[in-house]
Amino acid sequence: MHVLFVHKNFPAQFGHIASFLIKKHGFRCSFVCELPSGVFDGIQRFQYKLTGGATKTVHYCSRTFENCVWHTHGVYETMKAHPEVKPDLVVGHSGFGSTTFLADLYDCPIINYFEYYYHGRNSDLDFRPEIPVKELDLLRSRTRNAMILLDLQTCAAGYSPTQWQKSLFPVEYQPKIDAIFDGIDTTVWHRRQVPRQIGDRVIPPGTKIVTYVSRGFESMRGFDIFMKVAKRICDARKDVVFLCVGSDRVCYGGDMQRITDAESYRDHILKQDNYDLSRFIFTGRVEPNQLADIISMGDLHIYLTVPFVLSWSLMNSLACGATVLASDTAPVREMIRHGENGLLGGFFDVDRLTELALQVLDDPPAYRHLGDAGMHMIQENYSLDKMLPRMLDLYERTLNKHRGR
Description:
alpha/beta, 6-stranded parallel β-sheet, 16 strands, Rossmann fold
């Protein structure tokens, strides 16, 4: 059995699946992406290159589609140049649009990973009323789905990582989409007994640790709200430090387009109040094992997000047994039940979030059962051991349906 995976990056959502299929089922797996060709852990990697893309003369609302077409054509031309590759199944991430033309190259089914369907209203775009929505951004939210809709029409089957993310897609296409999470590798993401130390800084006994993780410090992930809560915690207690993992980048949204007083969103937020920065450790990006150590040494983990793609960091934190305080938003409610496996507070409710945080910090052992319940939930429902067989079942069902057509 030969599966061809398609994604701009590598290994992205598919590397662990490919390794599983190779090692456990003897599959052959290939991967086409923008990184150089080669063989990596038994996966044959092919590089595609872009030869064009959207320019400023292209309408703002159609630039995403223009770029997607260049990606999908690059994938098509690369695989056309390798006629020895004859996959039984193609699996790709929709949104880059990179599988669409492969339907005209191979007589095999395509499965797409559908991560997000854009909406202009009651969505991430307009969730924060203090951030005005530009008219063109509102209009673009429709056209950003153009290649995704083509993929929905072209693919044989699809999957989304959560039920909430699946629910965003048009009702008429939802029967095509399964809800299957990527899978948490619990050999990495588990609770550890580790020294309370970051670099050369030793955190003394009795000092409480609050962790916050985001790929980029940005408004979509509530960095500004987190800092307001952290400031109030600092004012209330002198025995708390904050470990903030992430980088000065904006992955989603247009934060930097609205800022004129700083070079990063983090700097912009730090200028808004008088923060005692000796209480904050900004680690930058860290490797997974180091991140698992950081989460494990914490007494409280804070996760905030607008209604958007659920972060892996939340699931990793739950897997590490963290006591999680999270925003009471739709994607989070699918994973966290207040008082059972975590705590929920309104995204904008700084008072309530602070109150809940201080309750945990007053007596961390009293809330240890929440972290244990979160860890159990991941192990039973979202670990690789549970997800990969479901993924393989989707592959086999799709192949069998194709063969019996």
